Amino acid sequence: MPVDMYNLGVGGLMTAQQQLTTTSHNIANVDTEGYTRQQVIQGTQGALWEGGNYYGTGVYSQEVRRIYDQFAYNEVIYHQSRFSYSETLANRLQGLDDTMSKVGGNMLDSVAEFYDALNSVVDQPTDVGIRQVMLDKAEAMVSVFNSLNSSIESQYEAVNTDIQTVASRMNEIADQVATLNREIVTASGNGNGATPNDLLDRRDQLINELAEYTNVSTVEQASGTMTVIIGNGQTLVADNTAFGVDTIAGSPDVRDIEIVLTQSGNVVPLSGENLGGQVAALFEYREQELKLALNELGLSAIALADAFNSQQAQGLDLNEMYGNNMFTDINQTSLAQQRVRTDTDNTGAAQLQVNITEVSNLDGDDYELLFEGGAYLLTNIESGTKYNLGGPGAITMPDADGDGVSDLGFDLVDFVVGPPLDGDKWLVTPTRGFAGDMQVELSDPKQIAASSVFEVYPSDLNVSPANVTIVDVDPTDPLFSNNDLDFTFIENPAGSGTIFYDVLDSTGASLIGGPAALGPTPTQISYGGITLDVTGNPIGQAPNAPEVYSVKYAFGPGNNSNAVAMTAFQTAKMIKGDSLTIQGAYQSVVTQIGVHTETAEILHLTNKTTFDSATSTYLAAGGVNLDEEASNLLKFQQSYQAAARIVTVAKEITDTLLNSF
User: Fold this and answer.
1) Which of 553, 582, 600 is the last residue of a domain?
2) Most exposed of 323, 403, 507, 639 (fewest Cβ within 10 Å)?
3) What is the pLDDT of residues 213-244, one digit of tens each?
């Protein structure tokens, strides 16, 4: 049987039409995100044996193939996660850096203005108007502390909202991928093995979007379904089943939103920082950067409030009353209790609070408290250092130097003794939040305690370079009075280096039962609620023995000594082992966040380069090139026209043959 020229032309027409259709499909989807270029693969029809030769019988379309590079695609989703992580972290840090720098700059200015007003009170301690200016500046300064804390808290809430939004979108993607798995299997079966390219594109695009949020790996099954694995190996989609992604309130801190995966009824917690992508960046930003900013800001506020409140208590106001707190009490009961957050899974009854005992020992870190084996175990979350605190009702804080003050700067107090049960946990945040809680407590400018209670007057006959200063006045001491006292010092015997001191009343009678050994200086001695700091050696030797330091009640209109002591806080190093001033501590955390921001931006630019490179490689293989497609359109149009001519010629030949009879 001779070759059917008509059918050969029709086959060419159909194949050229399919080429034109596919090329048009490519052109139409040039801007469709995730679309992969398609190509008709042509095949030659079987040859026909005729007259000792094989004659070709035309062409057919074997398949419509996706121009797809699996390795290049895997590189894209790998680098997509890394790029999204670094981009999200860099953007968030830039926002925090701007907040800390701009609003924080206002804070430093307001602190400086507050000290300027304080210096004016030093100059004119009885001027009520100047005192009012100082209170106004205190209000302005506290307002900036509150505002900055609120700004950071707003970012905290925004991050939690974003985590919930991302988790919801991950859930939607999982459902859509599971649905596409089912549709792809069905379409492949109906198509006798032909691949549903557009469905595959949609599935790959969803997985690529998923890679923005988390690390993703995929395994294609023989059936055509795709198993999707996220994070460190958690299955999100298997065959036609999607496992639910959800968020739950954190514990012990309910604001620390967590991500969980529900598989066959089992709720599996996911470590947000280990998921990769945007999720990891959001968790890292919240856990490391925002908490750092809140804790350090709170530490600065605590140091400021404690210093001024303590000094206020050492002085007298214009009404000749002992000074009240200028700012919120750092150990106010409600604040002390909110520093300890109880885990929701606790089964015991113990409740605890944190009392700040020594600001300079605070490190600004958070701690985890665990009750186990009959004892409390405290762990610094940042450093991992552990402290065994003993059992309920007898908590013992670390005290390496034995001075009775916690090395950590705070005491844990179980105000509801218990009993706690093994496995109970608490989150301890000694400094976080105080910058938002701090307020000015004084309402009357006369309440500023600018005057000292007592002054020390060394005798003109003293010859040693010793220095004796008042460091504390406790009017609640049962022996306290406003009467003048003489503190005397004498070396006995001369040249021995042994110094004795005595406390005498106005009649010269000893109030401590006779001389007592001083001990090596520097040291402190106390009587009647008055504590003196003694430095140097007050060697009282004849003919000037003993050396005398008179402590006299000092209230008077022009006394500004206590206000002068307050001005020293502007340059005093009282934070983190007395290594930083209040302003210096804030500037230190601003610098830290600035460095973190710069590092994140460098990582972002690096990851962008690798991601762009991976994307370019992938698109070079599977992307639509309009110039190439336009050329193909002309080529296949010509093929179609030529095939049509074959059909025309075949018809003409047939007509000629029929007309010949």
Assistant:
1) 553
2) 507
3) 999 999 999 889 999 999 888 999 999 999 99
